[in-house]
Amino acid sequence: MQDSSNFKISSKILLTAVNKPLNNPAKRNDPKAELHEFGGRSMRKQTVEVSSALVLMMVWLCAPVLVRAQAPSGTATFKATVTDTETAIKEAAEAAKAAATAASNWTPPRTPWGDPDLQGFYLSLSYTPLERPPELAGKAFYTEAEALAAFKKAVEEDAEVDPRTVHYDWKEYGMDAWQSPVRPNLRTSLVVDPADGRIPALTPEAQKRRAAARARNPQVSVQTLDNLYTRCITGNQGPPRLPFNHDSESQILQTPGYVVLILQSNNDVRIIPLDGRPHLPQNVGLWLGDARGHWEGNTLVVETTNFHHERNWRGSTDGMKLTERFTLVDPKTIRYEFTVDDPATWVRPWSVESVLPRIEPPLYEFACHEQNYGLMNVVKGAQVREAEAAARKK
Q1: Of 205, 119, 294, nearest to 304 (Cα)?
Q2: DSSP summary character for residue 388
Q3: In a shared domain, residues 311 and 280
Q4: Assigned domain for 133 exists
Q5: Is residue 317 part of a domain?
Q6: Closest to 289 (Cα-Cα) out of 302, 299, 277, 276
Q7: Element containing residue 354 per DSSP (H, E)
Q8: pLDDT at residue 300, rounded to an integer
Q9: Is the same domain home to 263 and 296?
Q10: Which among 202, 196, 198 is positioned nearest to 346, based on CA atoms?
Q11: What's residue 22's pLDDT?
Q12: Are residues 205 and 128 in the same domain?
């Protein structure tokens, strides 16, 4: 049984009609709807200003049309996996078994030039925790029954989110992982090395860096805010990719000598040459790193170095070396593995294994710019908290 990330049915562009959020996922592709703000990142929104007199005339003339347009509301039907958690859980379990069967008797396709064909659209989401919970110490795998019970618990907790207490209720737009769905996973953690399923300890040097960074909240200034995603510099899909964020759709393209990874989040693009060329000089740092790839059988192996010195992935330095492996294990699933090696941050390398399930196209435009109210609110809130703390010390 393999853990599948979310076969997500929704785009990351939310549509609104008459300035009201669409609770109906099927209406998000309505060409008459406006593009609306999503996730603190303003999407394009077209506004037409007309005089009040013209507005009144249009309302009077078009009233019958508006009534007819609204009449079908609520008449659409949806797959039960989008509205009912029990159905979603059952289908996810069946999909996991079907994937295991397909993988045992399957030969990956090839491109016209002979490389394994990974091309398509994929998603990265999972309910499996990154690190093994303490209560499961020493237990690397569930039984099938245990895996299904853990999956059921995670789905039900996810579906019970109260939209009155959170910024977004993803299921309102068909965007919860279970609505796609993800599949149960026999593994108790995504970390597979070390064997205890835990990220290795930080080095003394890394501990000092962390302590220095905590001396003052980096969120008090846009210049020091360490979340590059909030600052619209990079997306939230790595590299490497961890299956816990929205905007997790991606596309893989191949040409002779290259593989291209297109990430919906922030429109990040990774161009991976396969011709054996050396990495860039060490003094050249890139936000997404400098990637070089090659094939090992049916597996694409990508080695990435030269990360930007201001890029802070889980406390790593620009000297981090990332090795990723992409293997198409059945017609609908890529097994995605990565190992991070940064002697200045962790006492030893560590590795993760997850899956990227195939999804339907396309990718949608992702827009992020200076009207990102999430960024402004984070900084203002941090400044207020800092001022309050200073006042208490007086």
Answers
A1: 294
A2: H
A3: yes
A4: yes
A5: yes
A6: 302
A7: strand 350-359
A8: 98
A9: yes
A10: 202
A11: 34
A12: yes
How many structural domains compose the chain?
Answer: 2
Rounded CA separation 151/119 (Å) = 29
| CA–CA gap between residue 347 and residue 102 (Å, rounded) | 39
d(CA 70, CA 187): 47
Whether the CB-CB separation of 182 and 5 falls below 8 Å is answered with yes
The range of the structural domain enclosing residue 193 comes to 80-359
Asked if the structure places residue 152 within a domain, the reply is yes
Residues ≥6 apart with Cβ < 8 Å to 376: none
pLDDT digits (tens, 9 = 90+) for 57-79: 433 334 333 333 333 445 557 77
Residue with tokens 């796609």: 180
H/E element, 116: none
Same domain, 206 and 315: yes
Mean pLDDT of 180-208: 93
> And the tokens for 386?
């800092």
* pLDDT tens readout for residues 135-186: 999 999 999 999 999 989 988 888 887 666 665 666 666 667 766 767 889 9
Distance CA 304, CA 270 (A): 10
The string of DSSP codes covering 159-209 is HT--TTTSS--GGGGT-SGGGS-----SBS-SEEESTTSSPPPBPHHHHHH
Mean pLDDT, residues 41-54: 36
Q: Name the more confident of 347 and 82.
A: 347
Mean pLDDT for the chain overall: 78
**In the prediction, which pLDDT does 23 show?**
37
Residue 380 lies in a domain: no
140 and 28 part of one domain? no
How much is the pTM? 0.73
Rounded Cα distance, 149 and 142, in Å: 10
Residues 303 and 207 in one domain: yes
Q: How far is CA 209 from the centre of its chain?
A: 27
Q: In sequence order, what are the beta bridge partners of 370?
A: none
Cβ atoms of 135 and 142 closer than 8 Å? no
Predicted confidence (pLDDT) per residue in 103-145, tens digit: 777 889 999 999 999 999 998 989 999 999 999 999 999 999 9
Whether residue 105 sits in one domain with residue 63 = no
What are the Cα distances from residue 286, in Å, to 257, 260, 307?
A: 21, 16, 5
